[in-house]
Amino acid sequence: MGHRVGQMVKNLNDREVKALKKKGHGSYRVSAGLYLRIEPSGSQRWIARLQSNGKRHDFGLGSFSDVSLHNARVEIEHYRRELKAGRDPRIKSGEINRIWTFKEAAYAVWEERKPSWKNVKHGQEWMKTLERYVFPTLGAFRVDQVTHALVRDVLAKIWLKIPETASRVAQRIKVVMDWCAAREYCPPISMDVVRAGLPKAKRKINHFRSMPWAEIPSFLTSMSRAGEKTRLALELTILTAARSGEIRGMRWSEVSLERQEWAIAGDRMKMGEDHVVPLSTRAMGVLGTATKWRDQTQNDPLVFPNSKGNPLSDMTLTMPLRRMFGEGAPTVHGFRSSFTDWAAESTDFPREVVDAALSHRTGNKVDVAYRRTDFKQKRRELMERWAKFLNAEPSF
Q: What per-residue confidence (pLDDT) applies to 375?
C-alpha cells in the first residue's frame, strides 16, 4: 500500500489514502493516472498524470483537504475525456477559460508556500510587494497572456528608484510564472530577457553601520539609561554575536544551563539550519538574571518577553543606540561585524571558526559537503575570549 511513482498498485480506498501521509513526502499512485503528492511540509494535493499524443501532462486537482477521493476520481475522468477529444481539460463546456489570472496564481502560490515561510512577517511581505507593485498592472491578466514586455514595464517603474525591492519583485514574479508553467498554464518567463530590456542599475551596497570593536566595552557600561531587560537583551546579543530576531525570539526551552549552550532551530535561522551557540560565563550570568522574567504559567516562555508576554520589538534594542548616538547610530546587526573585526585583529582563530560562530557558510560546495565539524569547542573558546574582552564592567 502506498507505493511511489512507477510502481503498480491496486486502486486505494479512503482509509489507505489517508495512511499515505505516514510514508513521507513523494508522489503516490492512488489509481490509474491519479496521484497524491505529499510535500515535505506535510501538505497534500491531487495530481492527474495523463498521456496525450505521446506527451505526459500533469494537472493539479486541488488539495487533499478540499477534494475527496471520489471527487478526484470523477475529475480525472473528465480530464481524460477532454484530452482524448483534443481539448484542454481546464476549459469546461460553457465556461470561461479556467487558466488563472496572475493574481489568482500568486495567491495560490502564497497559500501553498505558507508552511515554508520562516515567519509570518516574511510571508506577509512577500505578498504585499506583489499587491503594491504588480497586481495593479498584471493582476487581471491570465498567466498565458503575461509577456516579457508586460513584466519589463512593471519592473521599469521601480528598477532605478528602489532597486533592491525591484529585484525581489522580479524574483517573486518568476516564482509565480514558473509555478504556472509547471502546470502548463503558460510558457515560462525568462528574467534574463526581461532584464535585457531594463536600464543597468548602479547597485549601492549598504552595509549595516557598526561600532568600532574597541569602543564596545565602554558602550556596555554606559547603557544605564536603558531599562534592565533591554540592556541585558542587547548585551546577550553582543555576547553571542547573534541576530536581533534570534535573541528576541529566544525561549527557555532552547537553553541548556547544564551544557551552557543555546540551541536555535533552523526555522528561526536565516540560513534555515540548526545552530548551537556556546554560552560564555558572562552570557550565563545574563541568563541567570533573566530568570526573574520567566513566566511559569507558560509552556514555553520567552527569555526576554515584553509586558504582554510577546517578543520584544526590533526597535526596543535599537533605541538605546539611537538615544546615545543620534542620527547615523550603529545598528544592532552591526555588532556582528564588530565581532568579526575583533576576531580578525585581536585573535588567531581561523576564519572558519569565526564564520561558524556567526552561522555563516564558508568555502565552496565541496568544502561544505566534506566538513563534518561545527568547531563547537573552538567556538566556545572564541566566545569566552570575546566575553572577557567585553568584560570591562558586567551589567548583570
A: 84
Q: What type of residue is 238?
A: I
Query: Taking phi first (over 0 means left), then psi (-120 to 50 degrees means alpha), and beta for anything else, what does residue 359 get?
Result: left
- Residue ranges and CATH numbers for the domains of the chain are 14-84 (3.30.160.390), 102-196 (1.10.150.130), 213-390 (1.10.443.10)
Distance (Å, rounded) from C-alpha 266 to C-alpha 272?
Answer: 4
Give CA–CA dist 362/367, Å, rounded: 8
Contacts 24+ apart (CB under 8 A), 85-92: 89/59, 90/59, 90/185
The C-alpha atoms of residue 238 and residue 338 are separated, in whole angstroms, by 9
> What's the farthest any 2 CA atoms get from each other in the chain?
82
Tell me the sheet residues that pair with 194: none
Please, is 189 exposed, middle or buried when counting C-beta atoms within 10 Å of its C-beta (0-12, 13-18, 19+)? buried
Q: What is the pLDDT of residue 368?
A: 44
**Radius of gyration over every alpha carbon of the chain, rounded to an integer in angstroms:** 27
As given in the structure block, the three cell numbers for residue 89 are 481539460
What nine digits make up the cell of 309?
508576554
* pLDDT level of residue 136 (50, 70, 90 thresholds): very high
Max mean pLDDT range (3-12, 214-223, 361-370): 214-223
Q: Which amino acid is at 182?
A: A
Residue pair 394/305 in contact by the 8 Å Cβ criterion: no
CA distance 101 to 93: 19
Cell numbers at 69, concatenated: 477521493
Asked whether 70 and 77 are in contact (CB, 8 A), the reply is no
Distance CA 22, CA 26 (A): 11
Three-class DSSP category at 58:
strand
Pairing of strands 44-52, 26-31: unpaired
Spatial contact of 90 and 98, defined as CB atoms under 8 Å apart: yes
